[in-house]
Amino acid sequence: MKAIALEKYGSPDDLRLVDLPDPKVAPGEVLIRVKAAAVNPVDWKLAAGYLDPVMEVRFPLISGWDVAGVVEKTGFDATEFAVGDEVFGYVRKDWAQNGAYAELVSAPVRTLAKKPASLSWEQAAGVPLAGLTAYQSLKRVGVGAGETVLIHAAAGGVGSLGVQIAVAQGARVIGTASERNHAFLRELGAEPVTYGDGLADRVRELAPDGVDAVLDFVGEGAVAQTHDLLKQRGRVASIADGQGALEAGGHYVWVRPSAEDLTALADLADSGKLTVHVDKTLPLAEAAEAWRISQEGRTRGKIVLTV
């Protein structure tokens, strides 16, 4: 099969399109013919060695955890899916090596769900990691109907899905973003505020009594700037500032594969309550360029590779 791989830790310049053996399909797994694979910042951070202290990485490394495709083969006791099923998933195994930037990927059934019929292949590939991150962060802080949640980096891949999920749950959403993304956030159902100096004052103008929960999808001191806005200590979750979240009595969230949560996201999509803005689509061979765009940190929504 064709795949984008690294021979050692490196940068976008080290990515190569290579021929590798087809993946083995273990019991409880299926083999997926990849249609699209989303790019996430964690992909190039993992490849640069940033996660080496906490995650085993084996080479050659095929990056990518987000996939949408068609089941081509089922392993022993993988009864949840059949050949020909259209699926999507966050294919994270016990170590990183055989990822989604390839023509084929083997995936444990616990990481997959049926693809939402309402989404394109590219949109479906953009859901799993970002959507699960947002969904599980909202569950961790317990956002409910009628509550107000502040979402940092609301126009990004995780934030834009978090806005829609929170709105679907009946919450009021205030989202931080640059001014160029304010119209986009309003379309998603959020009330935008510009980040930077004076952020807390701008949020208080919209919510004088404070907010019920804060979701931090950017880091960069966002928790410290706004945790005093919380009505109740502890209802804060961050994926980028674990220490800040914990000091505020909240949660440091690292997304987990979950077929159940993926199915819930698929249901939201097919009910018209969740969509994915695909900012850039590039062919698999241009994965290095996709990483360079991701590293600029200005993406609205998702970057997706087509296979």
TrEMBL record:
Name of one Pfam family that matches: ADH_N
Every Enoyl reductase (ER) domain range: 10-305
Position of the signal peptide: none
Domain of life of the source: Bacteria
GO molecular function: oxidoreductase activity
PANTHER family attached to this UniProt entry: ZINC-TYPE ALCOHOL DEHYDROGENASE-LIKE PROTEIN C16A3.02C
Protein name listed in UniProt: NADPH:quinone reductase
